[in-house]
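Researcher: We're teaching a course module on how sequence relates to structure. For the next exercise, students receive a sequence and then see the predicted structure as C-alpha cells, so they can try to spot secondary structure elements on their own. Here is the exercise chain.
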Amino acid sequence: MRLLVLTQKLDREDPILGFAHGWIEALARCVERVIVAPLLAGAHELPANVEVRSLGKERGARGFALLASFARVVGGACRSREVDAILAHMVPRYAVYAAPFALPRRIPIYLWYTHKGVDWSLRLAEPLVRKAFTASAQSFRLRSRKKVVTGHGIDTRLFRPPEEGAAPPQHDVALIGRIAPAKDPLALVEAFGILARRGRALSALVAGGTLLARHDAYQRRVEERIAELGLAERFTFLGPVPHPRVREVFLGATFLVAPSLTGSLDKTVLEAMACGRLTLTCNESFRELFGELAPLLMFERGDAGGLAERLLHLLHLPAGERARLGQSLRERVLRDHDLERLA
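Model: And here is the predicted structure for the students to work with:
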C-alpha cells in the first residue's frame, strides 16, 4: 500500500503534536510508501520510504496559499496515482478538501478523529470517508456505522518505565498539558491546599502552557491561587516540553494527575501509564480501562477533596504495591493502545 497522510504538523519536538512523528514511523513499517502532507513541517527524521511534502505554513503560507498548496500536493498525488489510500489525521476538513481529487479516482479516504466535538466539518466528512478511526467509543460522538474503535497509538518504546537503578522521582505529582479551564489545573491546586492544611505538603511538576491568548489570564489566576495558598515553592512550572522529553517529566514524579474535563480518552494519561506511573483522573472514559482499579484512581470532576483523599491513599501504599499497580497499568496500554498495534 502507498499511503498519503494529511496532518497539521510534522515536528518531533512539538509539545502537542510531536507524537505524529512516531505515528508516521510506525505506519512506514507497515506499508510500501508514505507521503506526508503536513500544514507545517519542522524537525523530522523518517525512514527512506517516507516523503514529506509540506503545504508550506513554516514558510509563511496562509489562507488561499495553503489551499492552493493542498490542491497541488493532494491533487497531484491522486492524479498521478501515487497513492492507494488517504488518511486524514484529526482534521475532518482535510477529508472534505481531499474528496474532489480522491473519490473520482476511487482512492478511499479514511479519518482519524478523537475529540468530543461534533461540528459541521465532521458531519460533512463522515459520508465521504470509508472508515472513521477513533481511540474510544466516547472519542467519536457522531452516530456512524463507519466508526472503528482502535485504541490510541502510544509509543510504548519511548514511554517506558525507568531503567533499573534510575534516580527516584523528585516530585510527587506531574501535571502535563495545556493550561486552560477545560484542563482544570485548579483542582490540583486546591487539593494541594487541602493537604497542606493537614500538614502534608506535596510538590508538583507542571509541563505545558497556554495555546490561546484568552487563556493567559486563566494561567495568571492559577498562579495567583497557588500564591494565595502559600504553595509557590511547591509548584515547578516547566513551560511546554518537547515531545521526546515528556517521559522525563513522568519519571520525575511519583504520580500523574489529569483533572481534565474534556471527556475524551486522554493520551497523556496513557503515556504516563505506559511509563508505569499511577495516574489519577476524573475522566469517565478511563473507567473501563482501569476496571477494578477505577475506585483507586478516579475522582469526581472538580472534586479537589476527593483528589486529595486519593493522593493520600496512594502515598500510603508500600512502594512495592505502587510498582505492581504501575506495571498493571502499563500492561493495559500495551494490550489496548500500543502504537504498533494501531499502525
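Model: If you want an answer key for the exercise: The longest strand covers residues 2-10. The chain has a mean pLDDT of 95.
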